[in-house]
Amino acid sequence: MSKFIDRVVLHVRAGKGGHGCASVRREKFMPLGGPDGGNGGNGGDVILEVDPNVHTLLDFHFHPHAKGGNGKPGEGGNRNGKQGEGLLLKVPSGTVVMSTDGEILADLVGAGSTFVAAQGGRGGLGNAALVSKARKAPGFALVGVDGEERDLVLELKSVADVGLVGFPSAGKSSLVSVLSAAKPKIADYPFTTLVPNLGVVQAGDTTFTVADVPGLIPGASEGRGLGLDFLRHIERCAVLAHVVDCATLEPGRDPISDVDALEAELAAYQPALVGDAGLGDLADRPRVVVLNKADIPDADELAEFVLPEFEKRGWPVFKISAVSREGLRPLTFALAEMVEQYRKAHPEPEPKRQIIRPVAKGDSGFRVLPDPEVEGGFIVVGERPERWVKQTQFDNDEAVGYLADRLARLGVEEELVKLGAEPGASVTIADYCFDWEPSISAGVETLMTRRGVDPRLDQTERIGAAERKHASRVRRGLVTEDDE
To answer: Would the annotation count 129 as a binding residue?
Structure first.
């Protein structure tokens, strides 16, 4: 049995960037070959794209996790790592992408519209790309950054030209079945329709789609029943058609009160997408009243009685029978004409172009805030400093010195001084905490000595190769700890 899924939670994770390579060229008769470590490849993005051949979010219901490919690490010989393979996910037109907090991130309407759900991590630079006047042979490389990871809520709002609304068992599904080739489930009990049904209707040279929205009840706009799950499917409809059951035997119900009750629900419902498709509120959409079940004598008499009341409101009124197909032709061509008028006033939306927003002049790209948990501490917030910290090999003194130079050139040191930071103050960047030492010169060219060593760092916890070798000889009893 097929399912119609119109709301899913998608867990996306982009690929991780590959590490850069720290390598030195070694070739016969080529002393001082220099660094030749390649860059790591960027991680693959996770991208959502509208495909006109996709009509439901069913695939994401059964496969809610999406992951981009990881970038490959760089290699010696100036060989860059391979880029991570991106993941392209096909979604139907009308998909709204939201965060778990309800913030709208994208409204995907129109074939080809795309949204980057998760950005791939940046690959680390190899030591060949880090060469400078001060660092002629860097003994380190940058680490690849993890890709973006987050949870997204996908909601499908059907893109239909005409939305049929009405109480349960008003005959909406029957009307769709006779207007189009759709074959929805039809029965004589309330709430037979549990998912929206879409049908394609041909009227002369005009082709349009009709959405059968499952039965609404009073209080639907406040979440009663399944109203909110269904109301979103008529947000994009250009024309709303009230399908009225003129043969109902329920006490206290009649065509006028039914329409008034549904109008109150439509007026109270506020679409989550403000200004959706430029159509305005649901209360302002063109209306058509369809008086159904006119093949029953009592219903036909009631329809004739209430017809003048609806005409006073300025709405086109059609008396039909979905069973005998009476009055369907005038209704079909009237709907086609209203749809054509809408299409002329609202051209089909084009795929949205990607917008690139350059950094404003004078924007430092970071902020320094007081740490609320550490007295006298500070937190540095910004895309660049946070990424630089994540790219650093903290077991390599030269890499740590390179990080200090980058932060100083960005202006972090100067900003800390302005805010009154004291020597030894706790400075947090991303998930790393540092003790600020203004006595160490940073941001100025300092000639490096041995690879992996920064002369500005007097103390280091990293054990050198000579120390490790001596400790090994001591353990084997070859020398004593006092021997040099």
So the answer is: no
Query: Based on the domain organization, do 404 and 255 belong to the same domain?
Result: no
* 50 three-state secondary structure: strand
274 annotated to bind ligand: no
The dihedrals phi and psi of 442, each to the nearest 5 degrees, come to: -135, 150
pTM of the entire predicted model: 0.68
The tens digit of pLDDT for each residue in 311-363 reads 888 888 888 888 888 888 888 899 888 888 887 877 665 655 555 555 555 55
Helices (H), 136-197: 172-179
Is 166 annotated as contributing to ligand binding? yes
Whether residue 308 is found in the same domain as residue 395: no
Q: Is residue 477 part of a domain?
A: no
Q: Are residues 463 and 378 in the same domain?
A: yes
Count of domains in the chain? 3
**Domain with 206 in it:** 162-345
Q: Is 192 within any annotated ligand binding site?
A: yes
Q: 277 and 178: one domain?
A: yes
Determine whether the annotation assigns residue 446 to a binding site.
no
Domain boundary among 156, 190, 211: 156
pLDDT tens, residue by residue, 406-423: 888 888 888 888 888 888
Binding residue per annotation — 184?
Answer: no
Q: How far apart are CA 280 and CA 264, in angstroms?
A: 16
Given phi > 0 = left and psi -120 to 50 = alpha, else beta, which region is 376? left
Q: Is 294 annotated as a binding residue?
A: yes
List pLDDT tens digits, range 69-122.
999 999 998 999 999 999 999 998 878 898 888 888 888 887 888 899 999 999
Does 187 appear as a known binding residue? no
Whether 321 has a binding-site annotation, put simply, is yes
